[in-house]
Amino acid sequence: MPDEESFEGQNLINIVLFHKSKLKKIQKGVSAGKLFTNHERRKLKEYGILIYRKKTWELTEKAKKVIETNRLL
């Protein structure tokens, strides 16, 4: 039986890599509202990829690590 944490970690990696180009734009200051729909932003928040802080959307530390290294640390 697969380990649930490793499955969730791999799922996070896959989602981040799928949206990597848009997520990198968010890191550079582009509004997530211009790149993703409300539904997409809500899902990315649920997956732990985006966080709403100080009236703006930002990448979580986990998502940043995946972008930098292409794997979850």
Describe the structure.
The chain is globular and about 30 Å long. Strands 1-2 form a two-stranded antiparallel sheet. The chain is built from five helices and two strands; from the N terminus they run ααααββα. The chain has one domain. Helices cover 62% and strands 11% of the residues. It has 73 residues and is mostly helical.
Write the layout of secondary structure elements.
Blueprint: H1 4-18, H2 20-27, H3 32-35, H4 38-46, E1 50-53, E2 56-59, H5 61-69
Antiparallel strand pairs: 1-2
Which key terms come to mind for this protein?
5 helices, 73 residues, 2 strands, mainly alpha, two-stranded antiparallel sheet, globular
Helix content: 55-70%
Largest sheet: 2 strands, antiparallel
How does the helix and strand content classify structurally? mainly alpha
Order of helices and strands: HHHHEEH
The Rg value, from CA coordinates, equals 12 Å
Return the domain count. Answer: 1
Report the end-to-end length measured between terminal Cα atoms: 22 Å
Outline the low-pLDDT stretches.
Answer: none
Q: How many β-strand runs?
A: 2
